[in-house]
Amino acid sequence: MTHVTIVGGGPGGYEAALVASRLGAEVTLVERDGLGGSTVLTDCVPSKTLIATSDLLTEVGTSAELGVQVPKAVRADLAAVNARVLGLAQAQSDDIAERLAASSITMIDGTATIESAGAVVASTADGDVRVETDAILLATGAHPRVSADAQPDGERILTWEQVYNLQELPEHMIVVGSGVTGAEFASAYNGLGAAVTLVSSRDRVLPGEDIDAANVIEAVFTRRGMTVMGNSRMASVERTGDGVRVTLTDGRTVDGSHCLLAIGSIPNTEGLGLDAVGVELSDQGFIEVDRVSRTNVRGIYAAGDVTGVLMLASVAAQQGRIAMSHLLGDAVHPLDLGKVASNVFTSPEIATVGLSQQQVDESDLQIDVAMLPLASNARAKMQGVHDGFVKIFARRGMGVVVGGVVVAPRASELIHALSLAVSASLTVDQVADAFTVYPSLSGSVAEAARRLHRLG
Ligand SMILES: Cc1cc2nc3c(=O)[nH]c(=O)nc-3n(C[C@H](O)[C@H](O)[C@H](O)COP(=O)(O)OP(=O)(O)OC[C@H]3O[C@@H](n4cnc5c(N)ncnc54)[C@H](O)[C@@H]3O)c2cc1C
User: Fold this and answer.
1) Which of 156, 153, 210, 165 is nearest to 183 (CA)?
2) What is the radius of gyration, based on Cα positions, of the chain?
3) CB of residue 267 inside a 6 A radius of ligand 1
4) What's the confidence (pLDDT) of residue 118?
5) Which of 122, 277, 297, 398 is deepest in the core (most CB within 10 A)?
6) Which pTM value belongs to this model?
7) 55 lines ligand 1 (CB under 6 A)
């Protein structure tokens, strides 16, 4: 029986553990903080739970248009919201622990160091445990980047892991960083009723996303009273009595009650012992892997954020599953980033799949694009949805769908039709011919596809 040892209990690790166990391996999983990893305990699950409350309040705030009289005092009780967030995260972690136990996976509560390709040492509360193994999967994730001049104190200068200890809604939250994490938290605190300033070193928010989508989000942010500061690079953040001051590199300052740092992630490789076994890292410090999650050292695989391939829970899980299929001789489908669906949980959301506008613009492929604003959709009108669109990219000729963008409330659900189309290489005609409910926002997905029909 093959014995595999997995370091890290996030989706990269625990999904791999389940697959390895199903494929007949003996599995040991070492986790230092809690099962589910950062995904469940500090990052993805907590932030999306917070956003669920924020989305509800945003809807309530705009419901006058639908004829609802809302008293002015509708507000979030942040202590209750955060208690729910943390409770839900812990419950999710417990569920994962139960699933792993039911699959006969040995779990070690400790911090792992790699001794060699055949042995891992876990430092636990009861001393060191040495595990001899046939293969290792490293799925140790990443942690928030901070800077020497912006040190979180857990009270007013915060990383995204620390915001759930807040007992009261910040009066004025300054979010530094306008990537996905920064934009999501800025949107969330704005929806919860805090004054928000978003400090972006780039000329626009969400620089890595579809430009049309980012423009919609920035316009919505501004309309809802958020201050968006473009071309503004943070130099330092300091406490000022009962507040914070963010100083920019050009000398300007922004004062607020709290500051959230969303300036990137650092892979968790320190202390793992990678040097000693010769595992190669990229210039940015991520573990280098191929499309079946192999590192350069035979028998050592890596998955998830520690590889920096694409920092998503779904990609981490897929990399972990692929690694185990490869190790244990099951059919392997190498990772295909061209088909990944992802979502930015702002209000409205941005969901994307397949080729992006930037890839289309930079490639020499012949691609047709259709973009349809939601404003003309009957259901959108009924629901008071004014912002958003559906965009589809299809190969000229056969009309095969190669990518799409949806900006809408719950775009994360609407993108599935386009994800199926990309994954199964459906044509725009096939997407357009499938019935959609009338009235529905998904009708706009079919209509955008219809606009790409070419006479045969
Ligand atoms: C605020 C935020 C929101 C996000 N939202 C989403 C989202 O909505 N959807 C999405 O797909 N992705 C989201 N992500 C990204 C997602 O959280 C990550 O891609 C995902 O956590 C990666 O999973 P992982 O298994 O690689 O690592 P993690 O989930 O970070 O798990 C790694 C685990 O390894 C453990 N570990 C590290 N070193 C050791 C060691 N030496 N010994 C033992 N254990 C160790 C850590 O304690 C940790 O529990 C979000 C990220 C952030 C920051």
Assistant:
1) 210
2) 23
3) no
4) 97
5) 122
6) 0.97
7) no
